[in-house]
Inverse folding.
């Protein structure tokens, strides 16, 4: 094989064939708008065939192969060093792939075209799904906006009606007070002293009547309903945006603090799994002022007083557990409510007991509606907005959220009285 036979590009650019220079296949000069696969012209094929015959018949010609061309042929894996045939299909290389920048056979072109079409269909499907999701979110936001506007309008009408009621009440009270004052002044100025002594009881009754006129009427408080600015949809979108960030499963440094573990619990060696002990161990752990001695509680090792934090607890099949946050000053000793999670002003927890879910704080229990029992419970604490949010990690569904002006650093807090719970990283 001569040097002119090695590549189509060499043949097409050979000075012996100036009339076929226009058929040169140069990948760098291809227009991006041209087809990915370009069939080689018949003249190029004929030229290749002619060159081959000439080389075969001329026995005196020295057969030398360009090292660069041979290396290119070998590295491409498409055609061998002896003939320009597709290694995979053993067919003539009569197509040029603009994507791979190399010669291919018609079978390769059909295969690559099918793959390209499949990828285009997949990309089109993905684009349609994204557009559908964006459209659904847009519609949901518009509906939520309309709902909030209607709720605000109803609240404005209620407050306006309350103001009108209060105004009418105070106007009537002023009229009554004026009339009572006039009667008392008339009685005091036109009644003889001896008669005043006899009429003392009547004057006292009129004064008592006048004092009660200015009492506020029984009406709804004149303040806007906080629910007008509350939107679970917006909270859910905000939580989803945060959870899709680089810290979706929280800090790897978050573990349970073994100093706080109750004697009713067992802590794993990696400080991530808590197991409830059905029988209290005979030997109590060493005394530690940080340890809970009565309730099955434990605190986390991460103190939070700024930024945004989130972590996930695998609750598995546990039928009784609590997950939340508390102040570091939470009482650790005794069996009173001051050391019981969710039953004091220093702790906020989501509780699951006897198949029911609830949010507990200051001893008040707010029942939660959970469609599907979660195997994991996530917590998201955003310190700047003073927001604590409980969510289901697999679907990012918001279970409950609370806004509170936290006045001191918070620690993760957990309790379990059935099976085990584990911190996930």
């Amino acid at each position: 094989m001569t040097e002119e036979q090695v590549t189509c590009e060499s043949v097409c650019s050979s000075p012996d064939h100036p009339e076929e220079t226009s058929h040169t296949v140069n990948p760098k000069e291809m227009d991006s708008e041209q087809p990915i696969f370009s069939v080689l012209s018949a003249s190029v094929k004929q030229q290749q065939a002619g060159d081959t015959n000439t080389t075969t018949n001329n026995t005196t010609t020295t057969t030398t192969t360009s090292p660069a061309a041979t290396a290119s042929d070998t590295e491409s894996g498409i055609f061998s060093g002896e003939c320009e045939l597709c290694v995979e299909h053993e067919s003539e290389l009569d197509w040029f792939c603009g994507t791979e920048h190399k010669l291919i056979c018609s079978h390769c072109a059909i295969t690559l075209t099918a793959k390209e079409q499949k990828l285009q269909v997949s990309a089109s499907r993905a684009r349609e799904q994204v557009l559908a999701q964006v459209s659904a979110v847009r519609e949901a936001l518009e509906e939520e906006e309309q709902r909030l506007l209607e709720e605000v309008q109803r609240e404005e009408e209620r407050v306006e009606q309350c103001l009108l009621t209060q105004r009418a009440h105070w106007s009537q009270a002023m009229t009554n007070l004026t009339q009572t004052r006039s009667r008392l002044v008339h009685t005091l100025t036109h009644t003889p002293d001896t008669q005043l002594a006899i009429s003392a009881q009547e004057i006292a009754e009129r004064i008592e009547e006048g004092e009660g006129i200015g009492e506020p009427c029984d009406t709804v408080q004149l303040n806007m309903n906080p629910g007008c600015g509350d939107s679970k949809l917006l909270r859910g979108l905000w939580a989803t945006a945060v959870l899709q960030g680089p810290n979706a499963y929280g800090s790897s440094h978050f573990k349970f603090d073994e100093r706080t573990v109750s004697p009713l619990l067992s802590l794993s060696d990696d400080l991530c799994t808590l197991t409830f002990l059905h029988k209290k161990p005979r030997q109590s752990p060493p005394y530690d002022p940080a340890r809970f001695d009565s309730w099955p509680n434990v605190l986390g090792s991460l103190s939070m007083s700024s930024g945004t934090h989130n972590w996930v607890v695998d609750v598995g099949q546990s039928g009784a557990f609590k997950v939340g946050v508390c102040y570091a000053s939470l009482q650790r000793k005794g069996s009173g409510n001051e050391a019981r999670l969710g039953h004091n002003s220093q702790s906020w927890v989501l509780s699951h007991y006897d198949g029911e879910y609830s949010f507990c704080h200051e001893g008040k229990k707010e029942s939660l509606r959970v469609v599907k029992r979660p195997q994991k419970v996530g917590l998201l604490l955003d310190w700047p907005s003073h927001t604590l949010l409980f969510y289901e990690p697999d679907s990012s569904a918001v279970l409950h959220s609370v806004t509170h002006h936290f006045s001191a650093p918070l620690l993760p807090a957990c309790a379990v009285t059935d099976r085990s719970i584990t911190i996930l990283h």
